[in-house]
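Record 1 of the preview.
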Amino acid sequence: GLVIYNQGQYNLVFADDDDTRQEKLALLRKLLDNLYLNLQPVIQDLQSPTSSPAYDTFFHDETSKPFLTALFTNITAGAVTYPVRDPPQFWVRLSTTAAPSLWSISRRGQMSAAGEDGVLQDVYDRCTSAATITAFNIFTPEDPHPIIVLCPFFYDTTTTLVFGDIPPASVNGSPASNCLVANPTTNRFRRRVTRPSPVGFELIEYRMWILLEELGHKYYNVATGLDGIDTYNVNAAKRLFPEKALANGPSYVYYAARNCKSFPQSTRSGNRDEFRKLLEDDSPASVPEDDDDPADAAVSGETFVASRVEIDATDVVLGT
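->
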């Protein structure tokens, strides 16, 4: 069976036999509260008549501001994702809206989803197919679901990855020590860690930002009916055309960490040739910490585009 808790409009879903669900629930409530606080200055920035360096770096074009304002506002409100259908799905029976459902997967048998090939796969198996899968959005174009999956690894406190809990907005989001830093010589963000991961990935690994990325994907799906992208390399993300930047979940995170002060030179036009001109004198051999390896420039596949989803909802109760 399942237990559903409400956090504002959000639905937090657990297996009823998950002995750790109270600890997970407390963490999710804290993360959503912190995310709400940290997005307030982001929304204020979007409503400003002038564009901040962070906005110029990642979105370039002021015409994107209304879309982003609506997206970030929807995240803070837990806005309805899809109309309630008749008969209503189980998450609507126990809550008032079809707001996003953060589904903590702890075992097999909770949920199965089929890709375009129609073959059902247990979501737990997808979660555990790689050691770094923390969460993913499920996008079902033909039969929309408000589901975001949180994998067991999302709650793993023994990992060597960052997975910190970001303080509330009183310290403006990420601690300054974790800000990405631009190299003025190469006009790129520099790599801050030595392990082989996309430049900037050490910022996205914070659990609060993982939630922002996946919720951003969900509300992008709702607004456009399209799948998003996942360009994790921050130097590749800052070169995306505006319409591609709007589709890129990691761009929301890099922009939202806007208390950071160091940004590469940007163009407001989003012209790719101008971006190339800014970088044409770069020598990866001389600045390996800033190298945009094509292999990690467009990490994708986090969103699971599904043809259908099957849920074990035989025994569902509302938690308190």
